[in-house]
Hints:
The chain is an alpha/beta fold and 273 residues long. The protein has 10 helices and 7 strands. Helix 1 packs across helix 4, helix 1 runs antiparallel to helix 10 and helix 3 (38-48) packs across helix 9.
Amino acid sequence: MSLNFGELExxxxxLRGQVIELSHQAGTPHLGSALSCIDILVSAxxxxxxxxxxxxxxxxxxxxxxxxxHAATALYSVLAERGFFSKEILKTFAKAGSPLPEQPAxxxxxxxxxxxxxxxxxxxxxxxxxxxxxxxxxxxxxxVTVSDGECNEGSVWEAALLAPVLKLDNLTVIVDYNKWQAxxxxxxxxxxxxxxSKWEAFGWDAYECDGHDLSALITLMxxxxxxxxxxxxxxxxxxxxxxxxxxENDNNWHYxxxxxxxxxxxxxxxxxx
Length: 273
C-alpha cells in the first residue's frame, strides 16, 4: 500500500486506541506488550508485506508470525484494520466460542498464521516456512516478531544457529526490545546485551533502530540482506505501553487492564476522544 508517514502514524494511534479498548472490554492483560509492537506491525502490514487480505491463503504470500502471542490484541486489530476480517468480530475478543481467543490459535481467522501462546516457537516455525520457500522455489519472505523476554527461550537461539547454515535470506526476525518481561527488566533476568552483536555472531545481518520510527522500520524491513544468503535480524528498541503517558515503561500494565476512566484518558492522549 502507498501511504505517507502521517497516514501511517494515524493508523498506529487508532490501533493503540483499539487494543486499549479490547483490554478494557475483555479485562485481559498484556496491554503494555501490545502497545510496544504496534509500529512494527503497521510497518510490516502497510508497507513491507506482499499480502492480499482478500486472498489470505495465497501460497505466494509473505508470512508474518507474531511470536509474542500474548500481544494478540495488536495482531487482531491490525488484521481487522487491514481488511482480513470485519472489525465487528473484535467485539467477541476473548469470549467463549470466539474465533479471537486471548492468544492466537492457528488459522482461527484469516491472516493468523500460527498458535503462538507458548513462547519460543515462532522463529523455529518461521525458519521452516522460509526453508519450504527455498525448497519449492518460491519467492515469499517470512517475518517473525519476537519479544525480548521470549529470547530467554533456547529454541530461539537454536533457530538462530540453524538459519545461517541453511542460507535463509528470506527470513527476518524483528525483536520488540521493550526491555521488560513479565516481572522485571529483561537484562536483569538474562544477559541479552549486546543484543545486535549476538545476532551478528550467530551469522545474521543485524541492525538496530528506534522501534517507533516508522521510516527506519520500513527501510530496514524492505532492505535486502547485505551478506551472502544470510537471514536478517532487526533489534527494534521500543517502549512498553508506548503512546499513553501513564502506561509507558510502567510494567504494571503487563497484567492490568484499564478501567473506564483510564480508557477515556488514554483515548484523549491518543487524539481519539
